[in-house]
Amino acid sequence: MRQLLQVAIWLAVLSAKLAVAQEFRDVEAYWVLLHEPAAVEELKLSRTQEPRFRELLDGYDLRFFPLRNKSQVESQAGVIKLLGEVTAAMDQLLTGTQRERLQQLVLRRIGFASILRDDVAERLNLTGNQRSRLETLVTDMQTSLTEMQQSRQGGEPAAQIDRKHKDLQKSVQTKFQQILDPEQQAAYVKLLGPAIDASEYGRPRYKAPELITTDGWINSTGLRLADLRDKVVVVHFYACGCSNCIHNYPAYRDWFTRFQRDDFVMVGIHTPETSAERDLTHVRLKATQEQLAFPILLDAQSANWNAWGNAMWPSVYLIDKEGYLQNFWAGELNWQGAQGEKFMRERIESLLQATPR
């Protein structure tokens, strides 16, 4: 679950399989990097480019979110189409040097599998035999990584998994050097460009969709995220009859009390799953009984659910002081020993201490 929090929100829905089409893998890498502050810094945007870059990306974010809870086929098709527009817009905005650096970062994010891209293979002048051997190497590597992830989820100690990962890296590098000649290896390293500190990654920011008032509020006359600048905002989707949601209530009550200050806001969004949960009087009564004293948006028409592309009860979103989504937790916070409550609480504390840009 922790790994899920360190990647883009949509990866929880759209890229569960390693055997994803190359086209989607490439646009996914491009999209994530446009949201990584460390990667954007590498582009060295000018003062005139920065506001236009932000404006473009914010608009595309709001078009992207509704794709998250579509079918996998519809989501991938929508993302690929949207990213085509993003790429064209960025090609107009960025200089040649900036576009080249962005492509270098894309290749690095894709990882070793990037060597199978047609443009990379052509630049390296790979033979048919080399491509075939590299395809086998990449497939075997992905299989091993999948097995490691399954072992980790099965309870195998992290130290043991880390050793396996290091051994895999050494094995892949040895085989890579056996397949490519020194000139090709040097050319590939050049295509990747200067390295960037990987520890700076894993902090993407996405423009949060605005709240849509359709069926009224509990404990509030109404809120807009646009009016909550300079505040850290927790938004959580729930249904009052959902047991996993109910198990999250103690965390919500604690956060609301612990961080009760001018720069912190909690918002619940109640989207019904059952017919009983569509009875707004019932929803209000349950909120009172459960001592949920923070603002709750009644979303009986699922307008917010669809605008956010939400796909699970409960889901918790953490928004920074500039209105950008920083973290996300799908499901019960402490499900089967997970540390979601602790992780999100620590992230709230960190964002409260941060100074808006």
Write the layout of secondary structure elements.
Elements (H helix, E strand, L loop, with lengths): L1 H4 L5 H4 L7 H14 L1 H7 L5 H16 L7 H22 L2 H15 L7 H7 L3 H26 L4 H22 L2 H11 L13 E2 L9 E2 L13 E7 L4 H16 L5 E7 L9 H10 L6 E3 L4 H6 L6 E5 L4 E7 L9 H14 L4
Parallel strand pairs: 3-4, 4-5
Antiparallel strand pairs: 1-7, 2-5, 3-6, 6-7
Explain what the structure shows.
By secondary structure, the protein is α/β, with parallel strands linked by helices. The chain contains 15 helices and seven strands. The protein folds into two domains: 2-126 and 180-200, no CATH class; 208-353, Glutaredoxin (3-Layer(aba) Sandwich). The protein has helices at residues 2-5, 11-14, 22-35, 37-43, 49-64, 72-93, 96-110, 118-124, 128-153, 158-179, 182-192, 243-258, 280-289, 303-308, 340-353; strands spanning 206-207, 217-218, 232-238, 264-270, 296-298, 315-319, 324-330. Strands 1-7-6-3-4-5-2 form a seven-stranded mixed β-sheet. The chain is globular, with a radius of gyration of 22 Å. The relative contact order is 0.12. The model is unreliable at 1-21 (pLDDT under 50).
Task: Using the alpha-carbon principal axes, give the shape.
Answer: globular
Mean pLDDT: 90
Q: Please give the count of helices.
A: 15
Q: Spans with pLDDT under 50 lasting ≥5 residues?
A: 1-21
Total number of strands: 7
Rg, alpha carbons: 22 Å
Strand order of the largest sheet: 1-7-6-3-4-5-2
